[in-house]
Task: structure prediction
Amino acid sequence: MVKVKLLKYTTDGVKLVANCCRVSGIPEMDDEDIVRMVVENDYTSAIEHIYFTFEISEMSIAISRELLEHRIASHTARSTRYNLEEGFSYTIPPVDEEIAEILKEAMESARKYYSKIYGKMLEKGYSKAEAREISRYVLPMATHCTYIWTVNARSLINFLGLRLCVRAAPEMRELAQKIYDIVVKIYPEIFEGVGCRGVNYGVCPENEVRPKNCPYRNKIPTKKELKK
Result:
């Protein structure tokens, strides 16, 4: 199960964003109302001044690849070149018990061969660094990794809109939900109305691929439906 820890964030962000907006000239309003207004109307360049830094651990390499797609952020990952990964931990996705057991067997096999390659290379006189370098090539996509991820509030809304969708990979959706649960408590003025893209835009861009288990299926129209 992926873990999320907030390491640092921009404090007094509401006041900061409100003052940034006043530079452009807006009606006299409370700071909180200004922030809610710019988020609701998607005038969100001002909230880029708010940053969050998270430590994300026990996340699979597979999902870390998806996280890299969110490029307006800073990514630092645990290196498999410089860390020995013998006995690595891993993620088993939500499947039935029989399939889970097969997956576990595959992971244990990868663990065994990682150690076998590493040990054999040391026996042959390779350095530890060289052995780590080569052994990591058998690490499966399920291997756990650790990330430090810094992202501004505007990019984070984009991330949540995509990854809170029921079509997102279960592990990625779990990550998005845990991040949301953290940030909405800090800045409800920004995040309390944020959800999947259908919630954020009032229209679902998933169109015909929207699944039957979408909770907004009969509440929010698709983009194609709206165009018609």
